[in-house]
Specification:
The chain is α/β, with parallel strands linked by helices. The chain has helices spanning about 55-60, 105-115, 230-235, 285-290, 315-325, 350-360, 375-394; strands spanning about 5-10, 45-50, 65, 85-90, 95, 160-165, 170-175, 205-215, 220-225, 255-260, 265-270, 300-305, 335-340, 365. The strands form three sheets. The protein has a six-stranded mixed sheet, with helices on both faces. The protein has a five-stranded mixed sheet with strand order 3-1-8-5-6, with no helix packed on it. The two termini are about 40 Å apart.
Length: about 400
């Protein structure tokens, strides 16, 4: 199973409470306060790993919860810090923070928080002191006073982009653990020698996140269903995607490694599911295909020059450019090359002449992937194209 997008919940560890304790020892009648501090909560850390190729691990474990810090103890012993939770994800994963479902109520809490927090005593002026309370506190919301547009964010809204992990070993602290509370030994003064209170630990950060995988490859194969993309990938690499004579044989992106025997040079080529009209509106496999070519350095538009499915190759070419532009206009700025496949068919030669007449100033590389015709020329074409891009970016 291939998972390239997943929604997860992450929560860092809660800081441990500070301890209220007093030193007891023979011949020491007034040992004084000895409550230790609470331990720090564990962080939730994302780490990019090039050995992974999808988000299947997060599919089976969508709740990422780090360890809490331990409470402080007597005799001045501090609690142990919580263990960090390191989550490995594939390189090319984009992390988005989803908007909170109760946005309006959360905003109301933030506005009223300063006035309520002023009633709580604090030694550091930042964190409240833990005391025994005789009653419970509650907050009342006036729903009529909330703005009319205070509705939850739509499900399709990705929210705010947090990070884009593309390098192996790159790490991101997704949620930071809470600080541990101070024990009562920290509040002893000349005027207050027996403090009977301590600080509670701070809560760790939490939230819902959306992970989106965008395959990292040098070359992206773009074309209509049954254009021969999987056959071409099989011919140039050792990848073995499913090949059959019906549309949407490829349901998940397939990445192959193209090796050059002369100098052991390597390129990565991505075969993505076929494109149909309206893909920018999520028709067919839609965005499941389009987002995987955004990182490719070079795009290869593979055309069925034989017109086996009753479509004209020049119409397919124009429709491909239209869908790419409607999805992301920046895709048209990438170097792209047109490859005419199925040149072994009888109608392919005539269609190629018509294509060059209707679409001018566009170079076409003819191949027959099923019979390995023109494969060596195609491999040199993409190698030179990628090298040209790398030199321009250097």
């Amino acid at each position: 199973m291939f998972i390239d997008e997943i929604k997860v919940f992450a929560r860092a560890g809660h800081g441990g409470k500070g301890c209220v304790a007093f030193h007891r020892e023979t011949f020491v009648p007034k040992g004084g306060p000895s409550g230790g501090n609470g331990g720090r909560g564990g962080n939730v850390i994302l780490q990019a790993d090039h050995d992974l190729n999808n988000l299947i691990a997060q599919y089976y474990q969508p709740r990422l919860i780090a360890e809490d810090g331990e409470f402080g103890m007597g005799s001045g012993c501090d609690g142990r810090a919580g263990k960090d939770l390191i989550v490995k994800i594939p390189c090319g994963t984009v992390v988005w923070r989803l908007p909170a479902p109760g946005g309006a109520l959360a905003a109301a809490d933030d506005e009223e928080a300063p006035s309520k927090a002023a009633k709580l005593q604090s030694a550091t002026r930042q964190r409240p002191i833990l005391r025994a309370a005789t009653g419970a506190q509650a907050m009342e919301y006036d729903l009529a006073a909330l703005p009319e547009d205070a509705s939850p964010a739509p499900v399709g809204d990705k929210g705010q982009q947090v990070a884009d992990l593309t390098q192996h070993g790159q790490q991101l602290v997704l949620c930071k653990g809470g600080r541990g509370g101070l024990g009562n030994r920290n509040f002893a003064t000349a005027a207050r020698q027996t403090p009977r209170f301590a600080q509670p630990g701070e809560a760790g950060e939490e939230g819902e996140f959306y992970f989106e995988l965008r395959v990292i490859a040098d070359v992206g194969l773009v074309g209509w269903p049954n254009a021969g993309k999987s056959t071409l990938l099989t011919a140039i690499s050792r990848a073995r995607p499913k090949v059959a004579a019906y549309p949407f044989t490829t349901l998940t992106p397939q990445v192959g490694i193209v090796e050059y025997a002369k100098d052991y040079h390597r390129l990565t080529v991505c075969d993505v599911p076929g494109l149909v009209e309206g893909a920018h509106r999520n028709v067919g496999l839609g965005h499941a295909f389009l987002r995987h070519i955004q990182r490719c350095k070079v795009l290869v538009l593979l055309l069925d020059m034989a017109g086996a499915d009753g479509r004209a190759p020049w119409d397919d070419y124009r429709q491909l450019l239209k869908e790419l532009e409607l999805h992301d206009p920046a895709l048209l700025d990438k170097p792209r090359y047109v490859v005419a496949n199925k040149m072994d068919e009888p109608a392919a030669a005539a269609n190629l002449k018509t294509f060059k007449r209707k679409v001018r100033k566009v170079a076409v590389q003819p191949i027959a992937a099923g019979f390995d015709e023109g494969i060596d020329e195609f491999k040199e074409l993409i190698r030179n194209a990628v090298a040209k891009v790398e030199r321009a970016g250097a």
